[in-house]
Every structure is written in structure tokens, then in C-alpha cells.
Give the backbone structure.
Amino acid sequence: MTFFELRGVSFSYDGRRLAIDGIDLQIEAGRITGIIGPNGSGKSTLLQLLSGWLDVERGQVALGGQNLCRLSRAELTRHVAFVPQREEGCFSFSVRESVLFGRYAANEGYRSFETEEDGRIADDALKLVEMESFASRAADRLSAGERQRMLIARALAQQTPALLLDEPTATLDLHHQRNLMRLLTTLAKVELKCIVIVLHDLNLAANYCDQLVLLDDGHIAAQGSARDVLKKEILEEVYRVPLVVTDQAVMIEP
Ligand code: ADP
Ligand code: MG
């Protein structure tokens, strides 16, 4: 089932250079879609257009057949949870309180206080990222990876049909990378969520994503299965680096 549909989508930050340049793309529910590509190729911009954080300039993003720009903020936060690459702002809250913000987003337009059920959902989300013992810790005193896992828990607590994650594995150790990718697989396969994840690690992309979209300078350079996209000729051209590509792995040629 198509969850997001993009038609001729373009976006520019400065009104001149297009960060996203005429993209057509369908993103399915029940699958993990991996967005890959070099620095500055438009991955974060694309994710922000899907989440409604940025408005398309030309073209259209549809969510479940509805034009995304016509949805209210409350409708958007009930449909899409977004884990940004960086999060500005200070966290003068505990880890658990920060995760509970995901419940405020989920309840937006209904109520502004939390119930026992909201507390349970936040605690479950903390467990899923192995952060339950951090619940009462100050959110601004965490390691980068712990902070990343807290932000993932906050998005999980939002319980949306779509989950967008921008380089969530960048600061995670191997254990937590695997834990996250397996969790996302379950959310896609069992709960039929639409998962969109930006990754630099092409081996994680190959092993866990059902579909890959390779961006290059605001365009789609290739899309399809890992087998179709992770080809030596394609990757060497887009990333401008010599590579060793086998069925099992993509490595930089030393
Ligand atoms: P990626 O996530 O693939 O590294 P981005 O989507 O963040 O790339 O950026 C795409 C392009 O838009 C880059 O050239 C980047 O410099 C530019 N860009 C990103 N954010 C801003 C911004 N807030 N203002 C102006 N230009 C930006
Ligand atoms: Mg980015």
C-alpha cells in the first residue's frame, strides 16, 4: 500500500539552488525504505518534506492519498513521527518527560495532559531502546548515542503509522544499531508501519531495507532493491570513491 506519494517535488532553501529537484517517488507501508546518498544530496531535506517540517515549492506530497500541505499540524503529528538528524534546544527535562512529549504530539487536538496509559506507552518505548534505567536522568546529560535512543523512543511513543529517521544509527554502537534495525523490521512487518530511514552505512542499508533510494544532488540516481542499487558502477560514480562491492558488503578500497 502506498503511504507517501511524491510527484514532481522540488525544494530550494535560497530560491536559487534546488536541494530537491523534481522527485517522483512512491513509499510503501509495511516496508523499510532506505534513503542513501552523499553529503548534501538532499536526504534530510527529503525527510523534512515528508514530515511536513518543510513545505514543497513545486509538485505535491500526498500522505494516504491526501495532499500533505492540507493536513493540520495535529493530523500530521498523528500520522508521522520524525527523528531529526540534530535536535537544537535544551532538554531541561528528564529522559522520561522528554519521551512523554511524543504522547503530547500523539494527543494534540484531543487533550494536553497525560494519562496513565501515556506513561505506560512512554515506558514501553524506553524499554524498546534499552533506556529504561535512564528514565529519571537529565535529558541534557546523555552521551550522543543515549540521546539518539531517547529521541527514537520519543518518536516511538507517538505511535504513528509512519516513522521517519534521519541517520539514527550514526552515533549508535553495533549492539544498538542491530537492536534498532531489528525493531524497525518488526514495526514494518508486524505493525505494517511505513519506515523511512536515512543511512550512510550501506551494509545496514543492504541488510535491512526493502527498498533503497539513492540521491545525488537533489535527484534520484537509482532506486529499487539493494541488489539493483548497490552496484559498484553506480556507487563509485555517485560517491566518487573506489569501492569493493560483493554480495555481502560494500567497502571503501583502501
Ligand atoms: P543531506 O542530508 O543529504 O546531507 P541536506 O538535505 O541536509 O543534505 O542538504 C541538501 C542541500 O541543501 C545541501 O547543499 C545543503 O547545503 C543545503 N541546505 C541544507 N539545509 C539548509 C538550510 N537550512 N539553509 C540553506 N541550505 C541548506
Ligand atoms: Mg542529512
In short: The mean pLDDT is 94. The CA atoms of residues 30 and 188 lie 4 Å apart. The two ends are 42 Å apart (CA to CA). The domain at 2-93+162-252 is CATH 3.40.50.300 (Rossmann fold).
